[in-house]
Every structure is written in structure tokens, then in C-alpha cells.
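Hi,

I'm pasting everything inline rather than attaching a file, because the server keeps stripping attachments. The sequence lines come first, and each chain or strand is labelled.
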Amino acid sequence: MSQNPVPHLTELLAGSPSNWGKWGANDEVGALNYLDAGQVLRGAAEIRSGKTFTLQVQIGHPHGDPAFPGPRGPATRVNIMDRGNYLSGTGTVFPGGLEFADDMIVMYLQGSSQYDALGHLWYGDQIYNGFPAESTSGRMAKASVLPIAEKGIAGRGILLDMARHRGKEYLDKGETFDHEDLMAAAAAQGCEIRPRDILLVRTGWLGYFYSTPREEFYEGFIEPGLTYSPELVEWFQKMEIPNLVTDTIANEVTTDPVSGVTLPLHNALMRNLGVTFAEIIALDALAADCAEDGQYTFLYTAAPLKVVDGTGAPVNPLVVK
Amino acid sequence: MSQNPVPHLTELLAGSPSNWGKWGANDEVGALNYLDAGQVLRGAAEIRSGKTFTLQVQIGHPHGDPAFPGPRGPATRVNIMDRGNYLSGTGTVFPGGLEFADDMIVMYLQGSSQYDALGHLWYGDQIYNGFPAESTSGRMAKASVLPIAEKGIAGRGILLDMARHRGKEYLDKGETFDHEDLMAAAAAQGCEIRPRDILLVRTGWLGYFYSTPREEFYEGFIEPGLTYSPELVEWFQKMEIPNLVTDTIANEVTTDPVSGVTLPLHNALMRNLGVTFAEIIALDALAADCAEDGQYTFLYTAAPLKVVDGTGAPVNPLVVK
Amino acid sequence: MSQNPVPHLTELLAGSPSNWGKWGANDEVGALNYLDAGQVLRGAAEIRSGKTFTLQVQIGHPHGDPAFPGPRGPATRVNIMDRGNYLSGTGTVFPGGLEFADDMIVMYLQGSSQYDALGHLWYGDQIYNGFPAESTSGRMAKASVLPIAEKGIAGRGILLDMARHRGKEYLDKGETFDHEDLMAAAAAQGCEIRPRDILLVRTGWLGYFYSTPREEFYEGFIEPGLTYSPELVEWFQKMEIPNLVTDTIANEVTTDPVSGVTLPLHNALMRNLGVTFAEIIALDALAADCAEDGQYTFLYTAAPLKVVDGTGAPVNPLVVK
Amino acid sequence: MSQNPVPHLTELLAGSPSNWGKWGANDEVGALNYLDAGQVLRGAAEIRSGKTFTLQVQIGHPHGDPAFPGPRGPATRVNIMDRGNYLSGTGTVFPGGLEFADDMIVMYLQGSSQYDALGHLWYGDQIYNGFPAESTSGRMAKASVLPIAEKGIAGRGILLDMARHRGKEYLDKGETFDHEDLMAAAAAQGCEIRPRDILLVRTGWLGYFYSTPREEFYEGFIEPGLTYSPELVEWFQKMEIPNLVTDTIANEVTTDPVSGVTLPLHNALMRNLGVTFAEIIALDALAADCAEDGQYTFLYTAAPLKVVDGTGAPVNPLVVK
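And the predicted assembly:
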């Protein structure tokens, strides 16, 4: 990491491109605007075999669930009615004798596979599209996950298997790559990243999470991932990438090794360009299938929960090949 | 309603068809097994314009959220970090100056648009596929929503707009219809229900919910919907319907007007045949579009959250026309 | 209410007495400092018959629980283990065959009988003792309920039964009284408010709550209670009152009828003088007993839960006569 | 531990004394019935110096909170309003300018210092007083913590400092003692256990908890504590002990070293005799003071929260010396 003082994002991203205002002063879905009906058809055109894949991690996995270090703890799911009530004579009785089970959950909205609201993260005094950062207080009044969930995501997805490309089960802690690497991986896979593609970038990191003691996983927490450069940001902008989907918790190398800044791409891509981020997305099964049949492109669909005022929402994306 | 004593479901459904064992002794997804790759392709073949619709109701709507009467209360979403923390000097600080908002939620798993686990409801001592009802206690150890969420749902969906068919904004409390009515509605729409179609049945009921004082909506609670008959059950079985999706809270008339039994179709279709139920699904916008362009069939995709041991899970289905 | 513009608290309470710094720059328990060992003994000296009373309202009362209008909803208590699990074969098994029941709760910390943290409420930029208001953000880092709970409250309590004094079952909405009325009530009861007494003021309001439809109770929400005057504040200061305990949700008339200011006494007494406030305290049974035996003074003990960083905490005070 | 098969509690406690029916068929507070007004006065008579001690552990201690191994996790406290909202312009505005902070909590009712409901634990088909074990399902309909909280606890408490008595900072894992040891400790302290005394037994165990890595604390989980014998049970019965209070999580040696049975005293004393159990009670500060002034007896007061249907409830006992 740099010996120099860590610059503020305002400085690091001075002159970085912005899409604020591009889709109107009230826009809350950003680069998802690229995904018009034509893009949906382009995605649907990739359907060949009818194979499907769901990409959420389990909520309540015995190993524990992956989450960014901090207050986010595991979900708590509790039954409020089940057979035990009926055996005990305390179940709700209905004419005809039906019985049922019911439950509730306490969870962090970003504690599983999830879409970030565009306002989830920012620097300076403004979130995406110039809304004041104060609009996040108490509830996300602007650029919440709700408009994203109302719109939904459907388009041409392309899997970029960086782990396989580098001949690894999973990338190392802090290992980086950039847009050139993504293009090289695509080429090696025999496909090509096209404008408005939804990028699914696999590092193998979730496989590492589930096979590793938690202490070891979180020690010196630094994920592998994309790393900031002005060129990468320009490439996302030029390619009109609507959505970045990865199998890491935060979609980029946690700390930029050049500047020392934490999560600069969230700011350059999400806050400034409105690129939506889907995080903690399970890609191993899909990737194995792509490696087998050689088809790395598909219809990608995702619809996070419509949580009013949410900073993010859990999602179970569904891919159709 | 019948003056006779209400029969037990064991009696009412004696001789009713069953799919237990059909897909193996360990099957937990039931009629979703009908949705093989060929069915996915059949659904994808309906895509024409690239229009998309998301079908979840909002979690935390200002009017309150629809739920079956009982303990299920509204979701509680709470920020745990936001701009206010940073203005106060109590936000988590990162190199480079990024700030973020975060939140958690407390909710009933069946308190919004949702897929029932096949084991969610039963009569006698067994849930779907003959698993003991005791397996629901504490957690849904068998036929939980997890396998449904792992598989995901994709196939040819068909909207059956019963409200429009009957020239109403929404059906009345307790108003019923059956499979013959569904077929008539399809015919009136210029389409046809085909084997293995995913049925989306619109009653207009959620529109009624959101435009009506809660006291009035819940008074003498009885929803409109499909009503039990042996013929209807045979039709679902013969047609190999994988999934029943409606805009009511419980997918059928709450109390069977003939027998007086509560929710017999949950038992005849879900418990016995393994038909998956998606409830509280918002169909008004989709229906308006179908009425306009005359296309009532489409690719229906849905992937409820992968909640381990869940009796159900929230979902935001996504339709591609 | 005043036709004049409502003054800011800064203006209303200009020149109002303050105890900031009186017990040191780090003090977080305020007027509870008055309750030294001598005061505990003075309280204990009131014990005569050995009768005891617990003063919390029930958490989860069938009628619903009293709370200030706003987001605070009812508590949710859920079993996570019980006999039903054992009947189902899913209970935790221990050698020897013991079985158990267990549960969890979701609740607002100020949604039942409760002590306010001294920092719970403020005006301007500072909470009690001059701590910056920013110290409340995310967690109550200063003047939380924890130091109050660590110290506990024990001293001479005196019941002032304003409802009986005025010959009413309960005071009217918005009905007010002041320190002169408290002294008059004491005199009528044959007792006297002495320095450092813990004041338990009964309005009958909780009895009204539990016997009234919620809509009626909350309509035009304005509680009866003490009303602000500079003289009243001086009296509390001179009398060194450590703790004000009432059977209303907010311990004072909700809106000051003279100035139109909301809850000025919370600010004049709690924020400025450090008087602790206990709210939603059930006094009817105690009052009936006092009326019967003529003993209105007693040992009052209370120990709210030691919630780290809490803005308040539930409490079940215990009185010994 | 015994090489013999572990007996069932029905066998181990055959012939063990019972108080079922002693205080009526509907009694739900058991041995607390011993604590009549006379006992309260006897407790009050021990007050000498006016010193007070609160005995709850903190909810949300940085080290983590002590709880019996199993599903009980730490409490989650979250602000729902604070200064940050006001700085952001999203705080609730009131005439006069008051601002406030508010919060909520999610917690296990037995996850902190707590009183067990008498029905919390049982063997066979019945809980305390012969109520059917089925009455625990869904909610504790009988012998919940509510009647205990309604009554409250006040009486003569006596601290029995087993750790000091044995010259240790804290007892070892699995270290046992019995009623003879309690009497010996009392004698060494220069006092005497009298009928109807509330027993506060200190092992130093909570001090060990807070100073030890959690992994080490929970490894091979077995607490020190009282150990079962028929004589000990007879002694509690003869002495009419109303309440056993300890600084361990479960008030007795976790596994009886003779029989191998888990928690037999919960069954012999709580289920059969109705002795109330207060667990995870912090006694170190009180004990240090007793050692210094030589006064080991005092007025003990405790009033757990009035949680309707609760299996237990958090409590912050308050001792007056």
C-alpha cells in the first residue's frame, strides 16, 4: 500500500465521469436505465438449453453467512406456529382441521446476497444523482433499493470467471484485476463483453468463505476484486455497464492498493455512474456449467425485495441459459 | 354455507389424487418438477416485446401490508447507520472518506408476496410427500421453502384476469370461480391454458386492499378465489400445473362455501399434489398491459429467498413479455 | 393555547436553573446524586407493614401497550422452544430427560414502564450536563440509561394522588396541575413533600388507557400532567427532587397550554436539572392501598435494565410500605 | 461421572418432596408465597448503612453477554431516532424545538440476568403445580414469569460467598458444593441462614466469564454450583427457601457428577418445590462490600419485567444494606 497520505475520494475521483442528471433529476435507478426492452430481448436471445441457476447464498447456512465486518450479524429465524402447537392443543384451529407452520425473521438487509441501493454509499455531501446525503438519515428517502426492485433487472449476462482464468480455486486475499483482465478472461472463454452487458465476475471467494474457519476468513479482511483506475471507470462508462455482480461481499478489492482508499469503485461506479452493485452472489455452480458447455452468456434476471426506504435488499437472481 | 357439520379434510379429500412419492421419497419441490428445461424454453418462447414486470407488493407500504389475519404484523425496518452518524462524528470512518447507510428488518416470512413451502400447511399427521408433521416443529426440516428457492421457478406463465372477465374492478368478498371459469377467461382473452402452465389468477383483490380502510378489508375476512371441487383438483393434476399465483392472501376462497372447510385447496393441491403456491402477488400493472397488447402469456420467473428451514419466503417475481 | 408564536425552548428556558457540572463534568445520573445512603435510610424508615407493590405495566397486555404516538409499536414475544418441540421429537435432549421452554422479544426500549436516560431528550446542541447532542447518534455514548441502572434508585417515595384529590377517576385530556397542587394534594392526604422525596404522581391516566378504545385514547393526543412555570422549576430545584414518577406516558401535559411548547418540563427538569423521569408507571393499586391505610410514603426502589447505550430501559419498580 | 446409565428424572426424583397444590391449584409463584409481609419486614430490618447494589449484568457488554449454550445470541439494540436525524433534517419536529433519541432491542428473555418462570423447565408431562407441559406451547399460559413479576421479590437476603470461603477468585469448572457447605460458609462469614432467607450464592463465575476468552469459557461447558442430593432438597424444603440467586448461568452444577443428569436441581427445587431461580446475577461488588463491612445480610428486592406469557424475564435486583 502507498506510503503517501491516503487521498480523499473527492480528490481521487476529481474529473471522474458522472451520470448525474443523465436520466433526469429524479432518477433513482441509474445505469439500469440502459436495460430497455431491447436489452431484455438481447438477453433472452441467449437462451438455448433452458437450464436455470439461482444465485443467492442461503440465509442461515450452518457455516454462518458472509457479511462485511461490522455490526451485521447473522439472521435469526424463529417459528411462531408449528406442529408442536397442535400436538399441545395450542395451535390455531380451523374448520376442516388444517394445521400450519409460520415463522418470522430478523436480518440485516445487506447480510445476504443483495442489491445495494444507489444511495447506499457515498462521499462528500451527496449520494447518487446529487441527492443530499442527509436524505439517507432514518430512512433512504432517495435512491433507495425500492425503485431498483420495482424495475427489476433483466438483460444479457456474461460470466467472467477470473478464478478459472487464473487457474485457481479462488483468488487470494487482496488479489486484483481490472477491465483488461475481464476482457482477457472473456476472450479465453471464447466470448466477448458487449455494451450494456451485465457482468458476473467470479473470484471463487464464496467457496473460500464456506470452506474456511471464520477467523481465518476475516483475518486482515481484504477481498480480491476489481481495482480502481481512471481507465476502468471510463471503460464502464463507455460500455454502459448497467450492473456489476460478483461473488464477493463488496465487489472490488477492499482497499485500493495504489491509493489506500477503501472501496473507491463503489463511489466511482455506483455513486457517480449509477452502476448497480449485486454482492455476495453465488456463482460456482453456474461457472461449472459454463465451463462444461462453453456458454458464458445468458438471460440474467434479478428482482430484489421491494423494501420501502431500504439501503439494500436481499435477492435471489435467476439465470436462464 | 353448509348447515351440515363441517367435514374433516381427511374425509373431504378421501380419494383425492396425490403425488406423494412421484418424484422420489425425498422430493421437496413437488409440481415444480414439471418445470424442466423444455418448459423453460416454452416460457422463453413467449417473449416478444422485452417488457418486464415485477410482481411483489412493497414491504412497508404506507397503507400497511396485506397479511392473513393472526399474529403476522407489519415489517419493521430500522437504519443502523446513515448520514446522521457522520454529521455527528459517530459514523464508521474509512480511508478516503466513504460514508454509508445500513439497515435491518424484522418481518414475518409470509407477511409479503411469498412462496409457501410445500410443508407450510397440512392436515392429519403428514405434510407433502408423507413427511411427518412433526418435522415442522422448531424449523421446517422437510419440504421447507429452501429447495423451492434453490430450484427457482421459470416457465410459461399465463395471466387469467378473472376481475376483467367479470367486468369488475375486483371480485367481491367470498366470490368464487373454478377451473371452468379459468378456461373461459382464457378463451375470452384469446388464449389457452396449456399443460404445465404457471397460472397467474387476478381477482383485483390487492387493489381493493390498498384502497380500503383496513377495518373494512378485514371485517368478516373472506377472500374471493378458486373453490374446491374434485373436478378442479383432477384438472390441476391432469394439466400438471406447477404453480398457482394469485393476488390474494391465500390463493382460494377462504372458506369453502359448500363444505365450510377452511382452505381445502391448499391441502388438495399443495399438500397432496405438490402444487406450489405464490400469494399476495401484485398483478394489476401486468394485467393492464395484457389487456392493452392482448398478450396474456409470457416467461414467468420467480426465486424466493433461500431461507434455511423457512415455512415460506418473500419473493419478487419478474415477468418477461 | 397561545395565539402567539411558539417560542423556542432556548428562549422559554433562558435563565432557568441548571445543574450541569454540579456533580462533575462526567456525571450521568444527575439528581439521583441526591439519593445518598442517608436518603435510602430515610426511605427505609417509612417501611411499616411490609406490604409491597410492583409498578410496571404488562408487556404484551391484551388491550395493547401504552406508548407515545409515533413509531413505537407493541412488543413481539416469540417462543423458540417449548413442549411442542418435545412432542414432535425436535426438542433439545438432555441426560435425565429435562425439557424447557425459551423465548425472545422485540421491543421498543421506551414502549413500557421505563426510565428515560438523561440524554433521551434535549434542545439546542447539548444534552444533560453539556454533553454534545451528537453523542446520541447511533448509540447514547453519554448520559445513557446505563449509569442510572447501575446506580439504581432507592429512597423515600411519596404518592401524590391528583385524581383522588380532584375527585376523579382520571384527569381529563390536557388537564394540568403544578407544584402547588402537589403540595395541596399531599396536605389533603395528611402528609408532606420533603426535600429529596421521589414523587409518584397519579393522574389515573393508565386506568383510562386500559378501559378506552385506542382510537379514542390517542385522538388529539394530549395527556394530563404537570405544567411548566419558572416557579415549578425552582421548586424542583430547591426541593432537590431526584426522580419524577407518573402514570402517564410523558410525565407532563403534552403541550404547555401557555407557550404551546411540547414537553418543556422534560427539558427544564431532566435536561437542565438532571431530574430522572420514570414514565408509564402503574399507580392505581398502590393508590388504592394508600387511600385505605392512609400511608402515602414508603421505600421506593427501582432498577431499570442495564442496557448499554440505551436511551431508556424498561423497569418494574417495587414499593415497600 | 457415573459409568451407570443416566437415570430419568422421574426415577432420580421419585419420592422427592413436592409443593404442588400447597398454595392452591392455580398458584404460579410457588415458594415466593413464603415471602409474606413479615418476611419483607425481616428483610428491611437488616438495613443499616443505606448502601445499595444493583445486580444485573450489562445487556450488550463489549465482552459479549453470558448465556447458556444454544440458540440464545446477544441482544441487538438499535437507535431509531437521534441527533443525526435532526442534523439531517429528518428528525421528528415539535413546537419549541425539543429533540430526542429512541431505540429498540431484540433479545432472548433468558439472555441476561433473569428470573425463570416456574414453568420454564420440567420433566415428565407436567410443569410446576401440575399444570400440563402442553401449556408451555406457543406461550407460557401457566406459571409464566408474569405472576412472579406482579408479586415482586422482597425479603431477607444472605450472601454466601463460596469463592471467598474456598479462597479462590472463582470456583473451577464443575466444582460442586451443597447445603452443608452453604451453612459452613455462612458460619465462616459470621452469620446464619435462617428459614425463608433468599440465598445469594457467589461462585465468582461471572468474573471468570468476563475475563476469559469465550471459547475457553464455553469449552466443555460445565459450571460450578450446588449439586443434587435428597438431603439438599429436604433442606431447601425445610428451610422454606423462596428464591435461589447465583452468579452462574444455571444455578447448579450443569451435570450432576453422581447421576449424570443435567440440571436436576431445577427440577427438584423449581419444578417440584416452586423455588424461584434468579440466574446470571452479578455478585462481585456486593461480595467485596460484605467482606469489608462484615454484613452479609440485607434487604433483597427484585422485580423482573412483567412479560406476558414469558418463560423468564430480565431483572436488575437491588440490594439495600
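The longest helix of chain A spans residues 179-189.

If the labels don't parse on your end, tell me and I'll reformat.
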